[in-house]
Amino acid sequence: MKRRNFIRTTLLGVAAIQMGFRGKEKLKTIQIDDSFFGKRDDTIFTWLGMAGALINCRGTIILIDPLISYGANSNTCETGDRLLVPLPVTADKLPKADIICYTHADGDHYAEKTAGILNKRFNPVFICPSVIADKLKKLGVEEQRLVRIKDFATYPAGNAKIYITPALHDWQKVDPWKREDCCGYLVKTPDGTIWHPGDSRLIPELKEIKNVDVLFFDVAAVDSHLGPEGSAIIAKTSGAKIMVAYHYGTFDLPPGTYGGCDPDDALPFIKDLKSEFLKPDPGEVLKLPLKYESE
Ligand SMILES: [Zn+2]
After folding, report:
1. Do 146 and 114 touch, CB atoms closer than 8 A?
2. Could you tell me which CATH class the domain 42-280 is placed in?
3. Tell me: the pLDDT tens digits for 62-108?
4. How far is the CA of 198 from the centre of ligand 1 (A)?
5. CA of 258 to the centre of ligand 1 (A)
6. CB 63 within 8 A of CB 54
7. Which of 11, 76, 105, 234 is deepest in the core (most CB within 10 A)?
8. Nearest-CA neighbor of 215 among 273, 254, 170, 158?
């Protein structure tokens, strides 16, 4: 509750609040209802758990890396991982989806069940690396709804524009991912920008990305991830005003692994930054523009 008040107060600009660091808290999923998806005159967004993000930019619904289907039961994700928290929405109940973006083909970012359901229900445009486009084609997605990413390209996305940021996530011992096998997304809305960098090492180009309002902050302190140290660096260089912790707290994985790191391990790296570090619950709605900027 305390944490929720902090977020709301910060985003509404009611008062300047010192960054309050709290101990480890369990995430508590907030169900996303249909009102999230309506036409509006601003932009709202939420973390879907793991690496997923959902954005409503003035009525355009954009998803990034959604894993929003259950597997064998309601405690299991479609990936087979045991869930620590329920999903905030599921692909079969989602009321709208216009654009689906995937950063790369690892199982904690892309899964066929969600992709297939969203494809059948909404005929969305998919923006993704070629590796995933090939998989989507096999699922029945027509070529004209597939956008194969190029680094630094910009693609129209309804009321937003999507700019591709490069990523290098070369974790495999044999035949590692190369450039453009993975990517990040800078979603430029009329109300501000949201940067989901995907999984990546800290490559020099990432420090050139500017004018970011919201940075999805990868807390996974493991090889070929930004981790808290790299994420803090790009938070600073990009000018991010809000950092949203992600890539944790969703799957039941051992501590210290790709999905099992503690977001508070980031605190030493961000202590001198002006941007706010948020640990929203899955499904908790955040808003752009960040009103306190102009007040
Ligand atoms: Zn990942």
Report:
1. no
2. alpha beta
3. 999 999 999 999 999 999 999 999 999 999 999 999 999 999 999 99
4. 7
5. 7
6. yes
7. 234
8. 273
Per-domain residue ranges of the chain: 42-280
293 CA to middle of ligand 1, Å? 31
Which regions of the chain are under pLDDT 50? 1-10, 12-23, 293-295
How many Å lie between the centroid of ligand 1 and the Cα of residue 16? 33
Mean pLDDT score of the chain, rounded to an integer? 92
How far is the C-alpha of 190 from the C-alpha of 28, rounded, in Å? Answer: 30
Instruction: Record the tokens describing residue 60, joined without a space.
Output: 């355009």
CA angle 166, 196, 87 (to 5 degrees): 135
Q: Which residue is it, tokens 């939420």?
A: 46
pTM over 0.85: yes
Gap from CA of 62 to ligand 1 centroid (Å): 19
Residue the block writes with tokens 């630094």: 152
SS3 per residue for 128-180: ECHHHHHHHHHCCCCHHHEEECCCCCEEEECCEEEEEEECCCCCCCCCCCCEC
